[in-house]
TrEMBL record:
Residues 135-156 are annotated as: Disordered. It comes from the Bacteria. Gene3D superfamilies: Anti-sigma factor, zinc-finger domain. The keyword Transmembrane helix applies. The keyword Transcription regulation applies. Pfam families: zf-HC2 (PF13490). Keywords: Membrane, Transcription, Transcription regulation, Transmembrane, Transmembrane helix. It comes from Streptomyces roseochromogenus subsp. oscitans DS 12.976. Residues 8-35 form the Putative zinc-finger domain. This is RNA polymerase subunit sigma. InterPro entries: Anti_sigma_zinc_sf, Znf_put. The chain crosses the membrane at residues 95-115.
């Protein structure tokens, strides 16, 4: 590898003299590899103080003197390698966090349905097929019909040690729509309990020709608020349009 490539670390640290810096900048103008490496090492000066105390590097300069001193080539090489590795680790951590977040977003609606029912027998989960059964077993329910959208919603609630388990029954809603069940607490805080898509044929349409369209939607959700801390529930579209509101 040409010696100019090996100068990128020293240039990033700002320890080249004027002639060396000018020569490297001329090389940098036509070297994509060095430009990429320099971008990776940009802003590494604040890390120099933390990395200066490397094993085998000899005496450690004071933090205030670290940028003015000219480290040995061996120390510069170690610093560059160390910073590159730390940046690579940071990128890997960011990738894993993004992947985990994406998995949670994709699983969100299913996780909202699969809420612990609290029944005896090992704490089974409320699946899409059993959400209606859970809803029908709930004694605390609130209902409302919106005069504009004509959508009808009933929210069943059950208090848990961790907050409130809820199941929504939604009727007379036509698609295509993407909707959420939002809990609005008495303190004004809003919590999305679950979200779903409404297909073209809709849910709970009493005049529909198919049985599938006449069936209501049942979907579960959960929140950390107790029932007496909840003001109301809203069914809203992803673009912010309120379909129906149910007082708690």
């Amino acid at each position: 590898m040409p010696s100019e490539h090996e100068t990128v670390g020293a240039y990033a640290l700002g320890i080249l003299d004027d002639a060396e810096a000018t020569a490297f900048e001329a090389h940098l103008a036509g070297c994509e590899w060095c430009a990429q490496q320099l971008d990776e090492l940009a802003g590494m000066e604040p890390m120099l103080a933390a990395l200066a105390d490397l094993p085998g590097s000899g005496s450690t300069p004071a933090i205030g003197d670290s940028l003015s001193a000219r480290p040995s080539p061996r120390l510069v090489e170690k610093l560059v390698d160390e910073v590159a590795e730390k940046r690579a680790q940071k990128r890997r951590r960011s990738f894993y966090m993004i992947a985990a977040a994406a998995a949670l977003i994709i699983a969100g609606p299913l996780a909202a349905i699969a809420v612990n029912s609290g029944s005896s027998g090992g704490g089974g989960q409320v699946t899409a097929s059993s959400a209606q059964t859970t809803f029908e077993a709930m004694s605390d329910k609130r209902s409302a019909t919106d005069p504009a959208s004509h959508a009808s919603a009933t929210v069943g609630m059950q208090q848990k040690d961790w907050g409130t388990q809820a199941v929504l029954e939604l009727k007379n809603v036509k698609g295509p729509l993407k909707c959420s069940l939002v809990l609005v607490a008495k303190n004004g805080q809003r919590v999305t309990m679950s979200s779903w898509s409404v297909p073209n044929w809709g849910y709970g349409i009493p005049t529909a020709k198919t049985e599938e369209s006449r069936k209501p939607l049942y979907i579960g959700g959960a929140a950390a608020f107790k029932p007496n801390e909840i003001d109301h529930f809203e069914v809203v579209t992803f673009d912010g349009k309120k379909i129906v509101q149910v007082q708690a």
